[in-house]
Amino acid sequence: MSSIVSFVLDGKVVDVRFDHQSGLRSTTTVLNYLRSLPTHKGVKEGCAEGDCGACTVVLGELGPDEKIHYKSVDSCLVFLPMIQGKHLITVENLKLSNGQLHPVQQTMVETNGSQCGYCTPGIVMSLFALYKNRDVPTRGEIDDALTGNLCRCTGYKPIVEAAAQACVLHGVDELTYAEPAVAAMLKTLHGKPLHIQTDGQQYFRPTTLAEALNLKHKFPKATVISGATDIALRVTKNHEVIPLIIDLSAVDELKSVTEDDIALKIGGGVTLSDLMPRLVNGFGALREMLSVFGSQQIRNVATLGGNLGTASPIGDTLPVLIAFGAKVVLQNLEGKREVSLDGYMTGYRQTVRKPDELVVGVVLPKSRPRAIVKSYKVSKRKDLDISTVSGGFKVELSTGNDVALITLAYGGMAERTKRATAAEQFLIGKKWERDTIEQAMPLIDADFTPISDARGSAEFRRVAARNLLLKFWHETAKEGV
Ligand SMILES: Cc1cc2nc3c(=O)[nH]c(=O)nc-3n(C[C@H](O)[C@H](O)[C@H](O)COP(=O)(O)OP(=O)(O)OC[C@H]3O[C@@H](n4cnc5c(N)ncnc54)[C@H](O)[C@@H]3O)c2cc1C
Ligand code: FES
Ligand code: FES
Questions:
Q1: Per residue in 355-389, pLDDT tens?
Q2: Which residues line ligand 3 (CB under 6 A)?
Q3: Which ligand 1 atom is nearest residue 315's CA?
Q4: If you write DSSP's letter for every residue of 241-282 in order, what string do you get?
Q5: Mutate to test the pocket of ligand 1, among 147, 225, 242, 256 (most ligand atoms within 8 A of CB)
Q6: Rounded to two decimals, what is the model's pTM?
Q7: Which SS3 state, helix, strand or coil, does residue 431 take?
Q8: Which residue has the CA at smallest separation from atom 2 of ligand 3?
């Protein structure tokens, strides 16, 4: 295992050592590393928690198709070892060799897309990722690319215009011509496992599942990370020195999505961005939920395994996964087991996962033709916000419009994601009609004692939970199930 992190920056391989001389830790963020260089001060820190996008950079990754794929990330949440074998692109790298600006920079100038300029490098990098990934993007795609970037003074109209004007060249720019050389460098760096030891801290980055399971067996108390979008905040906000980290982000075996007649099998390390395009044909409810999950910068690194790993009562994927009847796949050295996600959480941030087990996947069964699954997120803002209440619901009706099967899973209503069992039992065998729904709505209270907090009062949560059931009925009755 190597203790040197290598990546491509400014057209060459950079080797980073973690010693007293460099002053770097394995949990030094890419943002702080870049800010320590004299040549990369364009990247800015706003919030250090993934909310403002001032720190946005783009990572180029060599895919299984041998092509480089470009993704925007919040550099304040990415630990340096996580960019091993990747191409780190900052705002300084966009300028053309003849001194002219990159198309996304030039159109920002022409549309007056910047005032104080603090957010501008981050916005330019988000637009650059859009430029590389979408030719002639829709307004929705532009908005989505900018969800993770906060601009306090300019207003988004000129920035949206800049995106629309710039992203029309099929993603071609000088970086395109440099790709063969960069790909050759990345190839030599791929598959290198890391073990970094600094004061009071050990960081392992295995590249195979077998190595990862061995490490978790040896160090059951180690902190596992996949995308680190949750764990990084312990470093950036609480200034914790996490003693032992096992980073799964280089384990390719956890990144596959396969499909058969019965189910979609999703690796625990699949990022939410990579998962979204696979969620077609009946899996729309999960895709909908992911479309309001954080921002593109977050979804580009956050994983399904990590979301289940947080065991958060307001985690957004669990209610809808329960509605689908999904199972989590847990693995340790002794073997694999599948656990229904309905029984996965046992209390506040508690699950049935054993200390030496990893979340290696999720089995998402295909719904029967008459079943409808929907997901709902109630939050103060539509985008980049934490759920106050969320719901994942499924109903299957008989030909006579009777409820044959129903699942009503709620997040934000208790110490864990939970089903409204009293309401479900009442509805079974009843007509799927407004009268019955109105009788079932008060029964939701029987299963929950929500709390009041900054996001909403207990009473707000109760009312929202009842109304989500009414909304579900309204939408499914309209669809004429
Ligand atoms: C700005 C911002 C916005 C966010 N928005 C949302 C949102 O809209 N909805 C939402 O639900 N969450 C949100 N989150 C929280 C977080 O991004 C998600 O929970 C995400 O899915 C975590 O995935 P990760 O891979 O980054 O997890 P990590 O941070 O790597 O890990 C999270 C937890 O899971 C454990 N873990 C990770 N992988 C595994 C594994 N394979 N096996 C066992 N344990 C594992 C870790 O030990 C840790 O306890 C947001 C976070 C930020 C910073
Ligand atoms: S500094 Fe705000 S998202 Fe990174
Ligand atoms: S230009 Fe000032 S914050 Fe965006």
A1: 999 999 999 999 888 999 999 999 999 899 999 99
A2: 114-120, 151-154
A3: 11
A4: --SEEEE-TT-GGGG-EEE-SSEEEEETT-BHHHHGGG--SS
A5: 225
A6: 0.97
A7: strand
A8: 116
